[in-house]
Amino acid sequence: MHDASDCQKLFNLGQIRLNRTKEQSNVSECAMINFGDNSSEWARDNECDDPRFTGGRADDILNFEDIGADADDCQLLCRNGTIWLR
User: pTM value?
Assistant: First the structure.
């Protein structure tokens, strides 16, 4: 909270971004997300494997082929505020 000018400049240039926490997540945005299907090898394992998401229940190892392929896990965790869009 002591470097506002530099941070604002970098944010405006797209070189840094804000990370949200669970408390800041907007659970209502979950209703607008197309979560896809459950075609991932890792679907229904109680972790979100979709690399579009971050948070405490997002898997640490993310593969692009899992985008939109872990719908049930990601949708439930998003609605619970445990994960959110990056």
Answer: 0.70
